[in-house]
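PROTEIN DESIGN WORKSHEET
SECTION A - STRUCTURE
LENGTH: 533
TOKENS:
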């Protein structure tokens, strides 16, 4: 008996090239077949459907295709396309393609989103509208095989909850489900190629890297959430040798996205942690686009007790802590974190230091939006293993104080609240500096109000609401409106939180909390109190 094997054709890969105009989008589907019949294929057709399943375009090619021609390109027009937006500015409609080979349905559906991304100077534009990037970095797991779809959905949800509109997939390629979740959630992605620091300076290494970065782009380019490629993180001496080759390879595969040769050390300021002082962020280090900044913080006491044996936990066994990434010199000698008298004290002081750095730096960068700051990426979002790092979530996804602060400073509508001094004499107006910042593409008419809260969040004072308006993609200084208004009682004393809230109807657009201390002058100095300025 003779057995003949007939290879059934199937679609191996589909890539979409898209050009968006005002009233239509031209789409070219590049189709790769994984196997073909022994005889030539005579026709290939595509059907494009909108998110509701309605057919919006059809196209076909009727010509003989031989095994020597494994790839085909078919163009069509989507009229009045529904654009894919980041979550704070619109919806995330996904179109679908079905493909027929010689009239037979291939049985697979390929999805894509329609959007444009570009950079003009240092400023990014999504669908022609200006963006301010409120980002973070992520390496979510030590082993991606253990990074479940449920964990992915949780992480993406937590980033959106924190106001993040773009995540840098730091020096690795994540699971397909991660990018699919970002597509659905409207979370933009900066995708790194997995190169960290320097490598062998050989032509053979360069050739392998070029092949791999080309494969990465081909694998992931169908995801509308991916808006940028970066070829190398912190190269040491290879910025002018290896990286230009990688950039050429990416551009040859995909010129529709923002492509960066590398993410440089100079874009990674760590003032107050690896060097310098927190106040140096006022000079906007790392500008115009800050792709890393931050500080370490201990996870919760509960998490530390899961990581360490009791005899290694308190007093700390520093060698065991260092194994889990704890940085002793930076914590005590540069950041000046106080260990305190207990593990609870140490956790609180450590998390407060990280939160202070995130708040101060992010606030400075947001106030300088587009003049000259294009955006920032906090480092980093979540611990990938039981460790002590710069993340604002530990490996159990328990939130540090830094997460709550990141949520405040990354809100699309952000009330930037500064106190000119942190210790204030009771009975005198709080010395505030206020700015209302709006990253949304619509103007805001809102109410602003303030409360003075005790450490347990009981209301100690509140003040009358004031209306405020800010234009789309704009900012307005509110300092004059509130100067002299926020006046705590003369008998107030101790630690408080100043809470500022921006509300539009029933929606809270921004809520921020700033710690302060109210003090009273000694009785004998009352007559000599300083002149009010």
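SECTION B - SEQUENCE
RESIDUE ASSIGNMENT:
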């Amino acid at each position: 008996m003779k057995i003949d094997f007939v290879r059934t054709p199937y679609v191996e890969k589909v890539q979409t090239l898209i050009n968006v105009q005002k009233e239509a989008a031209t789409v070219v589907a590049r189709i790769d077949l994984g196997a073909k019949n022994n005889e030539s294929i005579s026709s290939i057709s595509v059907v494009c459907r909108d998110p509701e399943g309605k057919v919006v375009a059809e196209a076909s090619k009727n010509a003989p295709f031989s095994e020597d021609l494994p790839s085909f390109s078919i163009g069509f027009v989507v009229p009045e396309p529904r654009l894919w937006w980041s979550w704070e500015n619109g919806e995330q409609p996904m179109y679908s393609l079905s493909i027929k080979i010689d009239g037979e349905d291939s049985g697979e559906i390929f999805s894509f989103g329609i959007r444009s991304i570009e950079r003009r100077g240092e400023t990014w534009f999504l669908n022609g509208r200006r963006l301010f990037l409120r980002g973070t970095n992520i390496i979510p797991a030590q082993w991606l095989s253990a990074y479940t779809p449920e964990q992915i959905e949780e992480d993406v949800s937590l980033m959106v909850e924190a106001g993040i509109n773009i995540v840098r997939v730091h020096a690795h390629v994540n699971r397909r489900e991660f990018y699919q979740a970002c597509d659905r959630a409207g979370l933009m992605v900066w995708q790194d190629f997995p190169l960290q620091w320097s490598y062998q300076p050989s032509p053979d290494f360069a050739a392998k890297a070029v092949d791999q970065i080309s494969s990465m782009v081909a694998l992931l380019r169908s995801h509308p959430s991916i808006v940028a490629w970066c070829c190398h993180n912190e190269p040491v001496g290879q910025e002018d040798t290896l990286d230009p080759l990688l950039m050429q390879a990416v551009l040859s595969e995909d010129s529709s996205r923002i492509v960066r040769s590398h993410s440089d050390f100079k874009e990674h300021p760590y003032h107050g942690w690896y060097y310098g002082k927190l106040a140096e962020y006022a000079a906007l280090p790392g500008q115009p686009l800050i792709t890393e900044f931050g500080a370490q913080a201990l996870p919760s006491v509960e998490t530390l007790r899961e990581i360490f044996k009791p005899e290694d936990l308190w007093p700390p066994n520093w060698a065991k802590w260092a194994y889990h990434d704890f940085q002793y010199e930076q914590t005590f000698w540069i950041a000046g974190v106080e260990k305190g008298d207990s593990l609870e004290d140490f956790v609180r002081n450590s998390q407060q230091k990280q939160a202070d750095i995130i708040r101060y730096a992010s606030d400075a960068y947001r106030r300088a939006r587009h003049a000259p700051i294009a955006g920032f990426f906090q480092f980093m979002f979540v611990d990938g293993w039981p460790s002590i790092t710069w993340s604002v979530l530990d490996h159990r996804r328990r939130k540090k104080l830094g997460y709550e602060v990141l949520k405040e400073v990354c809100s699309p509508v952000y009330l930037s609240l500064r106190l000119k001094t942190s210790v204030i004499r009771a009975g005198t107006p709080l010395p505030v500096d206020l700015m209302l910042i709006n990253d949304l593409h619509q103007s805001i008419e809102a109410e602003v109000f303030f409360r003075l809260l005790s450490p347990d969040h009981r209301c100690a004072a509140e003040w009358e609401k004031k209306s405020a308006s800010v234009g789309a993609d704009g900012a307005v200084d509110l300092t004059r409106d509130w100067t002299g208004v926020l006046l705590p009682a003369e008998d107030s004393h101790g630690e408080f939180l100043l809470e500022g809230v921006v509300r539009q109807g029933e929606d809270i657009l921004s809520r921020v909390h700033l710690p302060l201390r109210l003090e009273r002058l000694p009785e004998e100095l009352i007559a000599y109190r300083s002149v009010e300025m």
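SECTION C - NOTES
DSSP finds eleven helices and 26 strands in the chain.
The mean pLDDT is 94.
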